[in-house]
Amino acid sequence: MIKTEEDIIQMIKEDQWMMDILRAAKTLHLPDWWVCAGFVRSKIWDMLHGFHKRTPLQDVDVIYYDPSLLDEKVEKNLENKLKNLLPNVPWSVKNEARMHVVNHIPPYTSAVDAICKFPETATALGVKLNDADQIVLTAPCGLEDVLNMRVRPTPFFSEDKDQATIYKERILKKNWKAIWDQVDIQHIR
Questions:
Q1: pTM for this prediction
Q2: Which among 6, 47, 51, 170 counts the fewest CB atoms within 10 Å?
């Protein structure tokens, strides 16, 4: 059973595919980098649902924070480097130092600041390897929701009307209950 941060780290450590992805991302030597969102959440929910086969991911999100190099072409070059290492992974690389422009919100101050402003608390997760190749987990909105299979908006998405609309649209589009039937979705008005 997965109940703690240590359990999540151990679960990832025992998953060769996830470790290969973390090792590949680390080779890019990006500042303030994380593999995040569904990469972590889906694995936790798969395990909590007793699935023996991994739920396919639409993409594997690698984020970083580098305000000195904001050209989107850099991100595409990084994706290509990762595709050369692991061609069967649906890589998505984004520099969070520029994503506030895309998302029409105030600038982020770091990659973790961006993660805490993801739409759902259960998705506001990231992992990476430190210099000693140990797994580091960040969960700026906590682990309670992902471990209890609860989907609710992060404070950023529940306090702003426009962001709340985005949250509602994502919940409909993602249709997580069709995959993980024990997930409890919190709808907002």
A1: 0.96
A2: 6
Nearest Cα neighbor of 60 from 77, 38, 83 is 38
Q: What is the pLDDT of residues 82-91, one digit of tens each?
A: 999 999 999 9
Domains of the chain: which residue ranges? 5-148
Tell me the CATH architecture of domain 5-148. Answer: 2-Layer Sandwich (3.30)
Mean pLDDT of all residues in 149-154: 97
Alpha-carbon distance of 185 to 118, in angstroms, equals 16
- d(Cα 1, Cα 111) in Å, to the nearest integer? 29
Say what the pLDDT of residue 158 is: 87
Q: What does the chain come to in residues?
A: 189
Strands of the chain, DSSP E: 34-36, 60-64, 91-95, 126-129, 135-138, 150-151, 184-185
Q: In this predicted model, what pLDDT tens digit does every residue of 114-137 receive, in sequence order?
A: 999 999 999 999 999 999 999 999
Q: Residue 2: count other Cβ atoms within 10 Å of its Cβ.
A: 17
Q: How many helices (DSSP H) and strands (DSSP E) are in the chain?
A: 9, 7
